Amino acid sequence: MSNIFDSMLPEEENRKNAADLKATDTQMESGSSDSIIADNRETTSRDVKDVTQELLRHGYIEESRKAKLFQKSMINRAAILTALEPLDMTFQLDEHRGIAFLKVVTPKDGEPGQEWSHPLVRRQRLTLEQSLLVAILRQVFVTSEQESGVGECVATVAVEDLLPQFLTYFEDSGSDAKNESRLLSLLDQLKTHGFISEVDKKQEITIGPLIAHVADPASLSALLETLREQADMDEFDQAFNASTRADKA
């Protein structure tokens, strides 16, 4: 009887050894796979990660504020576009004005007239008052570029100089304090979108280059159409047509 058990033990040991070897091979293969994945992750450079994360965090990069990141966005443009593609996003680079900004890619298979939606981006619509103020500020920005050259100007405007233009399109409350408070409130709202800086100690704001792309002729035309539907505003026609002509010049 003992001879039978003696003959069976080596076979059981062989089976156990084979199982252990297979488990070891599996672990080695798994480890190799993990190593390959880790290596692939490392192929994305730190510069590309920095720019991509900044765009996802704030939506734009201004050269005047973050020169190093803006330089990285120019050098690594192709890699950043590749990194954003799976997210249905892209970014536009305006080297002359020193601005890089994130954009959502509109699906090609979307139905005509269907607005985009994105799981990572919440679309924010400007109110009519905000849109009108953006149009006024854009006109100031374009005029400054015409005088100094594209990319060469720092477009600033004093609140007191902006107020008369503001009241051209908004109802005068009859109180200077109330009118200025209303304007400052709207300016503060636009600041959160990255269009302008905060009001400084001189009661001035700096208009950012992003406004040239957000308030383009197409969006201005849409705004004008909305105003026409609400009322007969010949003054708006003249102002916005002048803005469009200045943009094409």
What is this structure's SSE topology?
Blueprint: H1 2-42, H2 46-58, E1 60-62, H3 67-75, H4 77-84, E2 89-94, E3 99-104, H5 128-148, E4 156-158, H6 159-169, H7 176-191, E5 204-206, H8 211-214, H9 217-230, H10 234-248
Antiparallel strand pairs: 1-3, 2-3, 4-5
| Secondary structure: number of strands | 5
**From the coordinates shown, what is the CATH architecture of the largest domain?**
Orthogonal Bundle
Number of helices: 10
CATH topology of the largest domain: Arc Repressor Mutant, subunit A
Q: Cα distance, first to last residue?
A: 105 Å
- Percent helix, as a range, is 55-70%
> What percentage of amino acids are in beta strands?
5-15%
C-alpha geometry: globular
Gyration radius (Cα, Å) is: 30 Å
Question: Would you list the SSEs in sequence order as H and E?
Answer: HHEHHEEHEHHEHHH
Write a concise synopsis of the structure shown.
This protein has 249 residues and is mainly alpha-helical. It has helices spanning 2-42, 46-58, 67-75, 77-84, 128-148, 159-169, 176-191, 211-214, 217-230, 234-248; strands at residues 60-62, 89-94, 99-104, 156-158, 204-206.
Can you give a write-up of this model?
The structure is a single chain. The chain has 249 residues and is mostly helical. It folds into two domains: 46-104; 128-248, Arc Repressor Mutant, subunit A. Helices cover 61% and strands 8% of the residues. The chain has helices at 2-42, 46-58, 67-75, 77-84, 128-148, 159-169, 176-191, 211-214, 217-230, 234-248, and strands at residues 60-62, 89-94, 99-104, 156-158, 204-206. It has a three-stranded antiparallel beta sheet. α5 crosses α10 (234-248). The chain is globular and about 60 Å long. Mean pLDDT is 75; it is low at 1-14.
